[in-house]
Each structure stands twice: as structure tokens, then as C-alpha cells.
Amino acid sequence: MTATDLAATADELVASGRASIAAAETLAALDDVARTLLGKTSRLNEIREAIKSVESGDRAAIGKSVAAARAALEAEVAERRAALGASARAESLVADRLDLTIGGRGYRRGHLHPVTRIWRELEDVFVGMGYRVAEGPEVELDWYNFEALNFPPGHPARAMQDTLYVKLGTPEAVMLRTHTSPVQVRVMENNKPPIYVVALGRAYRRDTLDARHSPVFHQIECLTVDRGITLGDLLGTIEMFVHALFGPNISARFNPSYFPFTEPSAEFAMTCVFCEGAGCAVCSRTGWVELGGCGMVDPNVFRAVGIDPEEYTGFAFGFGIDRLVQLLYGVDHIKNLWDGDVRFAAQF
Fold first, then answer.
1. Which of 80, 254, 323, 326 could form a disulfide with 266 if both were Cys (CB 3.0 to 4.6 A apart)?
2. pLDDT tens digits for range 294-348
3. Residues 50-86 as b or e (16 or more Cβ within 10 Å = b)
């Protein structure tokens, strides 16, 4: 091409380029147009490369024409970019504007887990009765979990509680506690009677998960040690606890049973909270729901912790908190308590 042709082509590119730039409706479309007009593969760049083929005397003039064309197109692109940017900002302000006439969305209140709710209610009931709350480790020694509670090695009662061991062998086995009773041993070791404590916490057993059992569960145990404590005090305390938590229409009853750490021992049940004794599906039409075990502290337990069983007597009782939650709230499967679904907790 001649110098005149190249210069004319550059002028034509400016004219057509301005039309393309003006037609771009978005910043993305403008970027595409700019690459077409000014990029390495653009027609304008081809003209600049073709300058080498014209006579040397015409090269300077063609170079100036190409530079002027590029500058003109870049100015057009910058101007259009500014216009489109302003338009985009204006549209964004309109889209993001708060419509104060529609009101707010409000806040969703959090909910306590049902086990936490009942845990706190139980603490309040027993503190109101004059007890103090005691705690202990969840990883226990065999002495506290079994031997001090009258479970000597080889005792058949150990088979009642399939244990999750952390360490076996000498000098002493270490395990996840199978009940909260080790807290009672630690309290009696470090405190002289009178003792009035209640212990709440997690326990662990090698249980298969089903509707009412879980390898991890929660228990509460009450311990009273003093002079002159009788079986009547135990039965009266449980009756008072049941009335305080469930109301005067709910009573307790007791059936003889066996536990290594209490003698005599009993299992206690309460009037079904759903039918108040009339009989329903929850209580299997009996009017009663089993709650836990109780009894007078075995003298061997007192001897293990250095308390004279001839001078002091005491009682203990306990039950599962998770089971109580299932009864109170009608939870059909215990795994629902631990699925982590916030919609479940929001029901309570």
C-alpha cells in the first residue's frame, strides 16, 4: 500500500472505531471493542507494521497519522468508560437503596438445647433444697469408677456397664467414667460429713445407639451423708424433687432392686407426666415411667473413703437426664438430641 492509502485507512479506522465505541452499552462490551481497535492484532497495529514497506521519506508522516489515530481512539474509549462507569454506579445506588417502608427482617432468637434447659432446672431444684453442685473428671481411674463403689475386680456387676477404656494395665486402669458416681467418691474423700451434693455430667458406655440409649449420655446423682439419715429421708427427698420439678400431681413409687454401692437398693418411677397416671402409649398404659435408681450408701463405700459407717449413714440416687428430656418433650429417638440441627432446638 502507498503512504496515502495507509493514512486514509488510519482515518477510516478512527471514524468506524468511534461508532463502535459509542455503541458499547456495558463496560465489558467496551473492553472487547478496545481490544479490537487497539490490541496487538488490531488493524491499526497492522498499519503501523506496514510503515516499513513505504518509502523512507513518507514514514514519518504515516507514523504521525497512526499515532494520532491511536490517541483519538484511546481518548474515545476513556470518555465512554467514564460515562458507562457513572451509569453503572447510578444503577447500583438505585438497586442497593434501602426501602425503609417495607420494615426490617427482625432477629432470630437463639435457643437453649433441651438437655441444657433441663440440666439448669435440675440444678435450681436441688440448690433450692439445700444441695451444692459438685463436679469431677470424665476420664477416671478404676478406683473411683468401680472399686471404691464396691465393684471389686471380677465383680459380676461390672458387666452391667461396658466400659470404654483409655488405658489398661498397671498400675491402674484409666477409663471414661460409666456414671457420675465417681464424683461422690471424690467428694467424700475430700469433705467431712455432713455432705449434701448433686453431680451432673456426661458419662460413657459401650452401648449400641437406639431410641433410648447412646454411648454418650448425661446423668445426675444426688448424695446425702449425715448422722441419722434413714430410708425415709431418701424416699421423702425423691418425692419432694418430683413435686418440685413436675408439680403436685406427680408422685414417685419404689421397687426393690440391686446396685453394688447401695444397700438396700431400689428403682424409682414417677407418675407419667403425659397422662398423670391414667395410662397412655408413653407409659405403656401403666401410668408410671421408670426414672432411676436409689438406695442407702453401702457401708463398704463409706469405709473406702474413710467415713465411719457406724456414725454416719447416707443415701444416693440418680437418673439419666437425656431420658428425662425424651419424656418431657416427647422426643422419640435420642439421636435427635445430638444431630446438631438448629431447627430441632428452636422447637423448645
1. 254
2. 999 999 999 999 999 999 999 999 999 998 888 788 787 888 888 888 888 888 7
3. bbeebeeeeeeebeebbeebbebbeebbeebbeebee
